[in-house]
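hiii, so i know i said id send this last week but things got crazy w the move. better late than never?? heres the sequnce for the chain we talked about at the cafe, plus the structure i predicted for it. fair warning i was half asleep when i ran it
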Amino acid sequence: MKKVLIANRGEIACRVIKSCRKLDLKTVAVYSDADKDAQHVQMADESFHIGPGPAKKSYLVMENILAAAQKTSADAIHPGYGFLAENADFAERVIAASMIWIGPSPETIAEMGDKQRARQIAIQAKVPVVPGSERFLVGQLDGLSDQAQRIGYPLLVKASAGGGGIGMRQVDSPGSLLETVNITQELAEKAFGDGTIYLEKLIPKARHIEMQVFGFGNGKAVHLYERDCSIQRRFQKIIEETPAVQLSNDVRNKIAADAVNLTCKVNYSGAGTVEFIMDAETLDYYFLEMNTRIQVEHPITEMCTGLDLVGMQLDFARGHLAEINQSQITHRQYSMECRIYAENPNINFVPSPGKLTRFKLPQQNEGIRIDCGFREGDEITYFYDPMIAKVISIGHNREEMVEKMVKALKTFEVEGVFTNIDFLIKVLDHPAYRAQDIHTSFIDQHKSSLIGNS
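okay and structure toks below
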């Protein structure tokens, strides 16, 4: 492996390029019309145009990306996260073109990408799963009401092919079930080309705990400890931290063992994440899904383990990574990540596209890391996810970690678009957050003190 094409954009493309440089690997960036002057394009050794601004005409067009790899003589493809990262067909086509796919096998991607199939595998591995239903195809909803009644309200309608909070809606009573199912199926058809849904029990006061894993493709795997991703808006994470708060070593070890067991069962290869939902009151936990890619929030794991997860992906893919024992992985200090979005929290977090007329990042040092794919003068377009940057802090304890983050956020200067920076500071300063009373409904519960002018 000598030259890696990054089939992505923004901060994750820049992140992959940095790890490639450390390993003396050449890089190829791909870009749409909207990204012709983007930072990842400037950073890469080569770049290749793949189409117009809309993702479905550029970053989601397999033929264009494969053609870019062939024309630039790239011998490997790193998908990043999002776009085609969890597309088994794309992985198969990369491998069929005699290139190295930097990710798990297409078979594993397909198995774990089908949420229903993933649940079945988890059950076989004796990993607890959230009570739920079988799948329902578009136009085939026989037994829907009975299944909902068995699970109990409130419940979630979830797209089988969904992820990242997309294609997931809450139902509080039988009267809105059918309408919500129809809406979710229509959305899933548009987003994933698959309108299949299933029902799942909603845990009202829940924690979102995920375990970073790394598999060696031979039935062996290790974990790199957990991340608490409970602070979310619209089912999407905005603040993550490690170690998870209010989690005993006994529960942590059980979650880690279940995550590793599941990873081994599917002969997983490379970096992945096993996600769990936990009842904040009882601390009972259930398998949610497995993400067969690098996660947005991977930097906090890197900060606390000292490992370069992207570098490990690259080394494993080219056969240079020796198998790691669990005893070799240690977790030190506390780390958290805040996602900076171009959005308006006062209007239901609606995206705020526009030009970054002023863009000054916090100072990076031993306690602060910034992962970013934009510079002053760049345009935030409506074509893509509006995340601008990620701010990561590390401390000897949770209080120090949070204080460093607040200080960094207060020095972040952005003009030209609305951002969620002030909102994030309010969350971090909230007494309930400081008291470690966090859960997935945190923002909704405290909305009156978080949204609007101070």
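btw The mean pLDDT is 95. thought thatd interest u
miss u guys!!
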